[in-house]
Design goal:
The protein has about 100 residues and is an alpha+beta fold. It has one domain. About 15% of the residues lie in helices and about 15% in strands. It is built from two helices and four strands. The strands form two sheets. Strands 1-4 form a two-stranded antiparallel ribbon. Strand 2 and strand 3 form a beta hairpin. The radius of gyration is 15 Å and the shape is globular. InterPro entries: TPA1/OFD1_N (IPR039558). This is Prolyl 3,4-dihydroxylase TPA1/OFD1 N-terminal domain-containing protein. It comes from Dendronalium phyllosphericum CENA369.
Length: about 100
């Protein structure tokens, strides 16, 4: 998977999708696994990130378990724009900005 993600073809596809030039950008890969009962902290993406892509590998997920990627409208944790279930085959691309 990492070989594919590092390929010029994939980089070109990201550029086409996002309308960003990624020519002089480096790639950083982070892998996380959360166990039952663990919570990720509310955070913003680093200011140096041009884009963030998240891949999910859960074969099943029940919304009642929590654990969704929660996109907020603003800094208020109750101001929910969208919850995204972490399901296998799903991927999210986020373009960080000064407001994200």
């Amino acid at each position: 998977m990492i070989v594919e993600l590092r390929s010029p073809i994939y980089r070109s596809a990201l550029e086409e999708l996002t309308k960003l030039s990624l020519e002089n950008h480096f790639l950083q890969f982070n892998f996380s696994r959360y166990n039952s009962g663990e919570r990720g902290a509310i955070h913003t993406d680093p200011p140096f990130a041009s884009l963030v892509q998240i891949f999910y590998f859960n074969e099943e997920w029940n919304r009642e378990w929590g654990g969704c990627l929660r996109i907020l409208k603003d800094e208020n944790p109750q101001s929910v724009f969208q919850d995204i279930l972490p399901l296998l085959g799903s991927s999210i691309i986020i373009l960080p900005s000064e407001n994200s």
